[in-house]
Amino acid sequence: MTASLSTLVIPxxxxxxxxxxxxxxxxxxxGNATFETTAPTWEQFDAGKLPExxxxxxxxxxxxxxxxAASRVSERSAYAGVIEHSVYVHPDARGRGVASTxxxxxxxxxEAAGIWTIQSGIFPENTASLAVHARxxxxxxxxxxxxxxxxxxxxxxxxLERRSTTVV
Length: 168
Known about the structure:
Blueprint: E1 2-4, E2 7-11, H1 17-30, H2 42-48, E3 54-58, E4 64-72, E5 82-89, H3 98-112, E6 117-122, H4 127-135, E7 139-150, E8 153-163
């Protein structure tokens, strides 16, 4: 477990399901987090995420401040060390270092597991997410222009990756 100020990072489990889905839906509703229009059920979320690489940030009362989770990008053995992640922070907890703390936990767990690349796609309008990823060692590798329609508008996605400096 990792602590940062009044934030504790713990494994993300079914105990957090309702809060995870609510935070996910809040990100969807704001319009710059994902192409999704509805949060998945907990069962769908749970089935698509790697259990050893998902974390919850909670405050002293146990309230979920944010979460991070990863999934495989491919079942092919050549990509065994490459994952894609998502990080979401409750609107009331933003600006408190929650995303940075969660990203650090993910980097620590993936490097310990031999994962060499963490990647993500972020809407260019989500400048806060782009900034926190840059501070955590992610780099922009390109932009997929007009990759999909979202709420009737073509959207670009900035592709980022963090290459491990310890997994070789």
